[in-house]
Amino acid sequence: MVKISKEEILKLANLAQLKLSSEEINEFSEEISSILDYVSHLDKIDVEGLEPTYQVSGLKNVTRSDEKIDYDIDKNQLMSNLPDSQDGQIKVKRMIG
């Protein structure tokens, strides 16, 4: 079993800017040691010949191609519905004070 020392826990806590009690140091020492032990077991698994799984949904490309759609509406007709416009652009209230 991989064992992480109290000094290593204190170093990690310092890097993360955490204040730990002595109970927390003991608890985290056991928990992190358990996690590292599990990872070492995973490291021993034979994965020879297995293809990496990048995603599991099977989707290849979920985007659509950009297509210009002609709604047969004149720009001036659209601009006439606006509350205010200037030089062919939509005029809005100032957003920044």
Written description of the protein model:
38% of the residues lie in helices and 4% in strands. It is mainly alpha-helical. The chain has a domain at 6-43: Histone, subunit A (Orthogonal Bundle), CATH 1.10.20. It has a two-stranded antiparallel ribbon. Strand 1 and strand 2 (89-90) form a beta hairpin. The longest helix has 22 residues, at 22-43. It starts with 5 loop residues before the first helix and ends in a 7-residue tail after the last strand. The mean pLDDT is 89.
Q: What global shape is seen?
A: elongated
Quick one: CATH class of the domain at 6-43? Mainly Alpha
The sequence of SSEs as H and E is HHHEE
> Within the CATH hierarchy, at the fold level, what is the topology of the domain at 6-43?
Histone, subunit A
Helix content: 25-40%
Q: How many E strands?
A: 2
Q: For the terminal residues, how far apart are their CA atoms?
A: 62 Å
Number of contiguous helices: 3
CATH architecture title of the domain at 6-43: Orthogonal Bundle
Strand order of the largest sheet: 1-2
Mean pLDDT, rounded to whole units?
A: 89
Structural class comes to mainly alpha
- C-alpha Rg, in Å? 31 Å
- The poorly predicted ranges are none
As a percent range, the share of strand residues is: under 5%
Largest sheet: 2 strands, antiparallel
Layout of helices and strands:
Elements: H1 6-15, H2 22-43, H3 75-79, E1 85-86, E2 89-90
Please provide a brief summary of the model.
38% of the residues lie in helices and 4% in strands. The chain is mostly helical. It has a domain at 6-43: Histone, subunit A.
